[in-house]
Amino acid sequence: MPDRNTREAQEHRLPVACQTTAGQQHSEALLVQLLLDFVLGLSRFSPLLKKRESLFSERFHSISTSAASASKSPPQCPTHLQGLRDSAPLIAQILLRARFPHPPSKSSSSFAVPLSLCGLMGSRDDDGQSTEVQGYAADINSIREAQARIAPYVHKTPVLTSTSIDTVAGKQLFFKCECFQKAGAFKIRGASNSIFALDDDQASKGVVTHSSGNHAAAAVALAAKLRGIPAYIVIPKNAPACKVENVKRYGGRVIWSEANMESRESIARRVQEETGAVLIHPFNDKYTISGQGTVSLELLEQVPEIDTIIVPISGGGLISGVALAAKAINPSIRILAAEPKGADDSAQSKAAGRIIKLATTDTIADGLRAFLGDLTWPVVRDLVDDIIVVDDNAIVEAMKMCYETLKVAVEPSGAIGLAAALSDEFKQSSAWHESSKIGIIVSGGNVDLRVLWDSLYK
Amino acid sequence: MPDRNTREAQEHRLPVACQTTAGQQHSEALLVQLLLDFVLGLSRFSPLLKKRESLFSERFHSISTSAASASKSPPQCPTHLQGLRDSAPLIAQILLRARFPHPPSKSSSSFAVPLSLCGLMGSRDDDGQSTEVQGYAADINSIREAQARIAPYVHKTPVLTSTSIDTVAGKQLFFKCECFQKAGAFKIRGASNSIFALDDDQASKGVVTHSSGNHAAAAVALAAKLRGIPAYIVIPKNAPACKVENVKRYGGRVIWSEANMESRESIARRVQEETGAVLIHPFNDKYTISGQGTVSLELLEQVPEIDTIIVPISGGGLISGVALAAKAINPSIRILAAEPKGADDSAQSKAAGRIIKLATTDTIADGLRAFLGDLTWPVVRDLVDDIIVVDDNAIVEAMKMCYETLKVAVEPSGAIGLAAALSDEFKQSSAWHESSKIGIIVSGGNVDLRVLWDSLYK
What we know:
2 copies of one chain form a homodimer. In chain A, the strands form 3 sheets. The first copy, chain A, has a 6-stranded mixed sheet, with helices on both faces. Chain A has a 4-stranded parallel sheet with strand order 7-6-5-8, sandwiched between helices. Chain A has helices spanning about 5-10, 25-45, 55-70, 80, 85, 90-100, 140-150, 165-170, 185-195, 200-205, 215-225, 240-250, 260-275, 285-300, 315-330, 345-350, 375-385, 390-405, 410-420, 425, 430-435, 450-455, and strands at about 15, 110, 160, 170-175, 205-210, 230-235, 255, 280, 310, 335-340, 385-390, 435-440. By secondary structure, chain A is an alpha/beta fold. Chain A folds into 3 domains: about 5-110, no CATH class; about 140-185 and about 285-455, Rossmann fold (3-Layer(aba) Sandwich), CATH 3.40.50; about 185-280, Rossmann fold (3-Layer(aba) Sandwich). Chain A contains 22 helices and 12 strands.
């Protein structure tokens, strides 16, 4: 028989602290939260009372210490408080970390989310690979854990709005600007979640990746640098110089391969065998998906009233994480994918009911040329409400609008969400009529200005 | 003999609620603030407890109502709470506005700021012009009033950081992105403060401006549109089409003039005489300076540990407001101006000890070609610690860095702060050695992409 608090939380689909532990710990966690709330409120809005933080800090410390010594096992941070590590003022982060030096145990986290979204959790085997999973590869728990894990290493990116663009779109648009993210794209979220989830022994041997994407390589190199471990980045000989430069700037070790996928994969395998490095997949991995899902947690914290989110789709890592998090928080949120016409494998896959891979792709959106994987496909199949396909002209027009009106330097893949929002296909759909406040994930901004110019005015 | 709270506030240079009123109102304001803090803390960080907002709201309302009915005059919002209208969650804004429908009275605001910064306040005479003032044209009070006045009409712009740029700069840089402001630049702050400070009678006749600047005209048109009054924008026949388009987009009425200043001024005077419209000056005005100063209030709320702010200088409205607010909050903050070599009248003025105007200007930074006015010069003379002069090549290099690394679409004037931060002149100064966390005001982002390209790769 659930107690009152548990029922209340289930009704409202909100986290419950430490359901599985004794009432004492529950009320302790609630006390901690109340104290934190109070300190946060005071420190943030009352300069006059800021000095009193130290007083709260002392009281808090004595409560924490006595509570911790009363317990035999080291205290676990309630999962729902982990989010504060990211969003709270410094004082609260310090308090939280002092109180809960260890990450949350799985048994202490419990969320009342729709059962259909509670995928079975995959786990890394000895090779550091995610094991195969049943259900979905990630869920709201793994995404919240990712948020807590990566908070020290990523930016909380701002949400921008433009009345001028809203007038054109006929809806309120909220641009989640991951182009301002570290290494210029959302990719660092998944990469740092994957890399910081490794245990010390696995991590010490380094990581390897052979992604063709613009960002993934730089993101893995940067996340590995942040953890202080080697990153072996397999790059085809015909890769653009700026990509190689980015990888080197973040301390990645460049390993050359031929331009074809076979060469890249076989060289990555050889690096794994020789060094024991862990392969980091750019999208088809539980930890990557969970990391990318933090974009949507953040967005819905920043603009809770959003009813629709438009997400670029390529391998499906970003949209899987975004959909799993958003639909767990609010099952009625509409998730729309934006895909370039010249690489519309996801739209074709949705129509066919199975993964379709294309022989060739042809689009200006160089970040959107990958195909769905076996872990991302089920999420796209089940939780993505529709896929809006736009052509390159529409992407270029949206890019111009981003530069000239939103004042944000985006790459083509980053502008495709706006292109979809402005498309006739969307405006003629029932989704358009039912949408009011639309989140647009601006996925990245890594673009060479000369290349940009050529694409805008060729 | 000041009471304890007053002394404590003076010691820490923080606002004191209602010093001039009775103790009853003082403690009531403190109670309000405590309640607000609590509600804010709860609503922001405790989803589980969010539902209880309504409870707080009810209790708050009954306290407010009884306190208001006990008082004979309508309740005045304490000035220090006004800031919350901008930064607080919606619930708190609603509570504040329900509780204090009237703007703060001058007698109820009192701040313990350095006496030297408490300039005598100018006031509009019957023509709507600011009267001449002794001391400085604005101060922390007028800037806080501006913040409260314009909060509903402007964006709170984000602060971006880049580890890559910090590595190049050798300092931590915090970019205050006014390019994301409404109408693409900080100018809307001053324009909306000027226009919303007009009484209904003055406002009904409309406003007129003849600024040559890219933004000022659009900002005045937009602010007038927001207030629902006519805006007459005098524009020289040779103005670029995009400027005219911007003005028309915001509903401004374009009045053509010849290209010279005499024609613009005489036509603006004629519009004033014929319509009774109030002239809005782009920088040399108390209300404009106060509005621009809100940039620095916001920045120091967002990053309180900043020790140096670099600000583009032209007519001096922005840097005057920024300096007056920042030095009132923290007298040890260093204010540095960034000025293009081809329009270095401010640097020459500082050296000469009087306003110097140039016969011609030649710089890519088209927003920085104006000269100081009699209201901005005293602030620049006394409170701007140094002026860093940079050439156009440095501005272009900084622009590229903004696009490629910061992912922000800036105009040349917006990039000059970064150019100054990276300049040899700055790096060889004592200011560089004494600076650690540097705020950079990215003033605007209104640029035609084709013009940008020409300037980057001509």
